[in-house]
């Protein structure tokens, strides 16, 4: 356990600190570099475009101290971050922390549903294709996964709504409030994930099936299913799990678009709105949480690989 | 081993399990989807959503023809000094938490709203207090349109428990026919019929509200039957939906005017003649036919017919004649440069047209005007920006032209908005570097007017000045579009968009 903490947890924790600082600094510099007067933008976000006027902008400027020099603002932001204070949302005046935790909960539900679907669909299809290399299923799954991965999640989402919600009327088209609402956005994300992981699984299965140890297992008299369970699954799992880690970036970028399409109140949706309204604390808060989520998910992947692969523990 | 089959089975079972819930949702609930988020619980920021959804109510309501009607106040009057108004509070009304509506409760709520930016804060209200069953409003100067301020969503009456110790709204406890059960800002709200409502009982057991910013989402939700009412559909989607889904499209002129704000300090825009010449280059019929797809949207003046006091009867349609525009400018001393654009003293007549995309039709109309102006010899460059670029450009003087949709019915009568937009010097969303001493004088007189024929004469004259001087060009009267499920009956659009009257909606069979 101590070894795992040294090998997995400590490097990832250091990485998390670096990510927090880099993401925060970049969002700070980028939002300041955007054109337009921040006070007017924030006032438009707060009071709606009908009610934004010079008086509202002036009030916002004074209340939020937007006049202070950028370096001073940066220093005070850095201090707040060190004291784990993310500040207040400039539009709604709620603490950023409470808003982000509400939204991140919804995004995590969506991410978990997507991963669950992807794990159900991708590897299973990959194993079937790999065990019958160059069979009809192998060819079909190659074509399908190429097609699915090349379509952006937004288009996949519209397609799913059209078929499942509009034509079949099985599931609600958009919104949130029940598990049924999470299925289509989850699936829109999962199909892209499953497309690649099925191919990775298929290649890993082909490699295992051709390996001397698998041939030996068959020679000593194990049936195909038993040989695969005992000597195949774990060997196939390591590259598949690692690849899921790499794919998480797809999940996180997909969340932004899919949430907006499905009217899902997650962190990606919040980020888009925060950028439009120049809501700097919210941009920093959401970007920070997304960065940290990425590190945390990678740490989980590392942990699983550590558990799966005895060679890592030995090195 | 047949992983495919088992996966398909699992997914199929999962879908069956969840779909039974989805199928069973055809209920007595009105599901609304629209693009506007619920930014906050605060009435000065998001009060309109709670008014739309019939959760909260105001002292005064508005009939579709613009007449004021009693709502939580049954009658009102002003004394001879015109500084003290008395509103009689309706009896037998209870809030959603069971507490009775009293003059004290109404005063508490209005005083809380008055401390925040909004129409109440800008008004000359000096004090709001309760005296017995009456709400007494004392003014610092006469203000004839005071009751119309109390139609505004920021003046909705909430129970004291809605506020925290600092006066911030933390809950929405209103008096409306529906009471909130779920409120998840910024996107979702659910409410159920309130058994103790003072008025006629609604047919629906409840209502839900979902903010879906993408029009694709709203269209698909109507098509799949997940939404009964979808607001702000573009005209093309609405026509298609009517053909493919059990949906009826509604489009009604509302109190907004799509306008072109002009900087009257720019050469060419600095005379009424120049501004009227530019007005003649706008193809309103074309915009109405191919962008808004609504012939009723062709504007022939600033204020639409719903504003009876301000609407000028008998005006013809504006002429569309880019050749006339060019000829007028030539008559004013402009000549054509090598590219055929109008120029004076070696400088081309080139203007930036700033607009924003919160209302999807604005950038399209702006582009069409850019082309019309080109034909007239005026170079316009469309810049699609954030809405706040228009007031910001107004103040730093950088704005040439701005395209926007102005709500003149914010408080029933356009007076408050006219004062803001057309007084000397102009306003953030109105005239720019323009002023009329006569209009300033009319505004001062209207403040003191009791209404009636005198008020009408003053407002007609004010509208005439705005029409002749053209500091802001009216392009189209805005049309609200809604896709309505055929399951619903008795739906109507309030032209002032104060409420959606969901309590009056019934089920078709």
Order of helices and strands of chain A: HHHHHHHHHHHHH
Largest sheet of chain B: 10 strands, mixed
| Overall number of strands of chain A | 0
Radius of gyration from the alpha-carbon trace of chain B, in angstroms: 25 Å
Q: Which features does this protein show?
A:
heterodimer, A: 315 residues, mainly alpha, MetI-like fold, 13 helices, globular, B: 509 residues, alpha+beta, ten-stranded mixed sheet, 15 helices, 21 strands, 24% strand
Task: Tell me what the structure shows.
The complex is a heterodimer of chains A (315) and B (509). Chain A contains 13 helices and no strands. With 315 residues, chain A is mostly helical. Chain B has 509 residues and is an alpha+beta fold. A ten-stranded mixed beta sheet of chain B has the order 8-9-10-1-11-19-12-18-16-17, with helices on both faces. In chain B, strands 4-5-7-6 form a four-stranded antiparallel beta sheet. A three-stranded antiparallel beta sheet of chain B has the order 13-14-15, covered by helices on one side. The interface between A and B is large, with 60 and 60 residues.
Brief synopsis:
The complex is a heterodimer of chains A (315) and B (509). Chain A has 315 residues and is an all-alpha fold.
């Amino acid at each position: 356990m101590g070894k795992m903490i040294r090998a997995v947890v400590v490097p990832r924790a250091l990485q998390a600190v670096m990510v927090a600082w880099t993401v925060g600094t970049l969002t700070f510099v980028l939002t300041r570099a955007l054109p337009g007067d921040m006070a007017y933008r924030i006032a438009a976000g707060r009071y709606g475009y009908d009610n934004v006027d010079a008086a509202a902008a002036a009030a916002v400027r004074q209340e939020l101290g937007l006049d202070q020099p950028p370096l001073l603002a940066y220093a005070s932001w850095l201090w707040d971050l060190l004291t784990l204070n993310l500040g207040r949302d400039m539009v709604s005046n709620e603490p950023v922390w409470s808003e982000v935790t509400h939204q991140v909960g919804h995004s995590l539900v969506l991410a978990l549903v997507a991963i669950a679907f992807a794990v159900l669909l991708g590897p299973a299809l990959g194993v079937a294709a790999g065990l019958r290399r160059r069979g009809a299923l192998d060819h079909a799954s190659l074509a399908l996964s190429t097609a699915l991965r090349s379509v952006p999640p937004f288009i996949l989402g519209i397609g799913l709504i059209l078929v499942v919600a509009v034509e079949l009327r099985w599931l609600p088209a958009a919104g949130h409030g029940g598990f049924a609402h999470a299925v289509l956005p989850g699936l829109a994300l999962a199909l892209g994930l499953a497309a690649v992981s099925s191919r990775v699984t298929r290649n890993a299965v082909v490699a295992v099936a051709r390996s001397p140890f698998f041939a030996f297992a068959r020679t000593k008299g194990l049936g195909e299913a038993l040989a695969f369970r005992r000597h195949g699954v774990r060997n196939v799992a390591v590259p598949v799990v690692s690849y899921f880690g790499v794919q998480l970036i797809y999940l996180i970028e997909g969340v932004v678009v899919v949430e907006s399409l499905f009217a899902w109140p997650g962190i990606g949706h919040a980020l888009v709105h925060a950028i439009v309204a120049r809501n700097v604390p919210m941009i920093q808060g959401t970007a920070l949480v997304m960065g940290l989520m990425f590190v945390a998910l990678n740490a989980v992947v590392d942990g699983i690989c550590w558990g799966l692969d005895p060679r890592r523990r030995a090195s | 081993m047949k992983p495919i089959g088992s996966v398909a089975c699992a997914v199929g079972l999962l879908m069956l399990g969840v779909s039974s819930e989805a199928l069973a949702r055809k209920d007595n609930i009105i599901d609304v989807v629209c693009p506007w988020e619920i930014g906050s619980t605060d009435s000065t920021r998001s009060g309109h959503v709670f008014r739309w959804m019939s959760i909260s109510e105001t002292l005064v309501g508005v009939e579709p023809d613009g007449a004021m009607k009693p709502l939580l106040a049954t009658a009102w009057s002003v004394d001879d000094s015109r500084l003290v108004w008395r509103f009689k509070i309706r009896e037998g009304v209870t809030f959603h938490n069971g507490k009775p509506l009293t003059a004290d409760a109404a005063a508490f709520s209005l005083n809380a709203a008055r401390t925040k930016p909004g129409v109440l804060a800008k008004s000359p209200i000096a004090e709001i207090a309760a005296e017995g069953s009456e709400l007494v409003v004392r003014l610092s100067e006469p203000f004839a349109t005071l009751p119309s301020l109390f139609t505004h969503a920021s003046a909705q009456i909430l129970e004291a428990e809605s506020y925290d110790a600092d006066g911030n709204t933390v809950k929405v406890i209103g008096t409306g026919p529906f009471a909130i059960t779920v409120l998840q800002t910024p996107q979702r709200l659910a409410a159920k019929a309130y058994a103790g409502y003072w008025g006629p009982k609604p047919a629906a057991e409840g209502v839900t509200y979902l903010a879906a910013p993408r029009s694709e989402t709203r269209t698909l939700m109507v098509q799949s039957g997940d939404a009964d009412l979808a607001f702000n559909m573009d005209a093309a989607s609405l026509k298609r939906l009517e053909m493919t889904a059990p949906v009826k499209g509604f489009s009604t002129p509302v109190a907004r005017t799509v306008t072109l704000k002009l900087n009257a300090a720019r050469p060419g825009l600095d005379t009424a003649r120049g501004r009227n010449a530019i007005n003649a280059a706008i193809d309103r019929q074309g915009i109405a036919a191919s962008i808004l797809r609504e012939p009723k949207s062709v504007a022939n003046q600033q204020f639409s017919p719903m504003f009876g006091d301000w609407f000028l009867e008998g005006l013809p349609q504006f002429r569309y004649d880019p050749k006339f525009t060019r000829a007028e400018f030539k008559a004013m001393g402009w000549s054509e440069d090598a590219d055929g654009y109008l120029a004076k003293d070696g400088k081309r007549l080139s203007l930036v047209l700033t607009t924003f995309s919160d209302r999807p039709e604005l950038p399209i109309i702006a582009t069409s005007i850019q082309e019309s102006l080109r034909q007239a010899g005026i170079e316009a460059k469309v810049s699609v920006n954030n809405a706040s670029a228009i007031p910001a450009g107004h103040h730093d003087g950088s704005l040439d032209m701005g395209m926007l949709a102005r709500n003149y019915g914010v408080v029933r009568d356009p007076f408050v908005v006219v004062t803001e937009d057309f007084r000397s010097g102009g306003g953030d969303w109105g005239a720019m570097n323009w002023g009329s001493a006569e209009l300033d004088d009319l505004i001062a007189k209207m403040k003191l007017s009791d209404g009636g024929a005198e008020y009408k004469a003053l407002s007609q004259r004010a509208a005439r000045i705005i029409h002749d001087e053209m500091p802001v060009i009216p392009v189209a009267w805005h049309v609200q579009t809604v896709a309505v499920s055929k399951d619903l009956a008795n739906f109507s659009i309030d032209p002032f968009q104060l409420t959606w009257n969901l309590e009056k909606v019934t089920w078709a069979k």
